[in-house]
Request: fold
Amino acid sequence: MKKSLKPLHAPPPKLSSPMKTAMRAASHAIALGGLLVGGAVWTISQQHPLYANPGRLLRLPAAVVDASQPTEEAFRIGEVLNQYTHDRGLAFRIADALVDQAQKEKIDPALLVGVLLTEDATLDPHARSSVGARGLMQVMPLHGGKWGCGSSDLFDIESNICHGVQILKEAMRSAPNTRVALLRYNGCVRGRNTPNCHRYDDTVLKHAGRAAAEMRLVKTQKGD
Reply:
């Protein structure tokens, strides 16, 4: 049986050049990378937002973290209160709560700062007086749970400030002027209850005036 012979002039088989091989490998790598990225994006979109875990905010882009910064007024108050505590976060949390309540009840926030510093200059949310007054604004337990402050826990910062502001608001509504309202807030009626309580209004207004002056000097994020 004769063996089939290849034509003498048959063209040689085509071989891939090194350049074509490299280009083909690169295109495969790019395609694979695209699939991996697409899969990662889909996976992240199915997870809960990072906002559910405050600790992970530290790894978010600066633009996202900046969105949660305090308002200008709260920032100014926070800087003032920061002089009274080593806990900067606490100072700004208190500032946020004060500004929030001041805006709701149409009360000068500097006056609220004055009351707070008079009642608790150490900014201790768990402060307790000899007669049982509690927290930053030194609220008596009998007021706990009133006014829809969200919690009856008077050691909670936001709840305590809400209760304190409501007590001051009621005193201001029935008093002839701010000084008398402050005395009533302190329970100083006709000079009774607290020794030298007639000086309470002077102390509050002094703190409030100093705070207002310091707030004007604070340089905000806008660089003013």
About this structure: Residues 18-46 form the longest helix (29 residues). Residues 1-10, 34-68 have pLDDT under 50 and may be disordered.
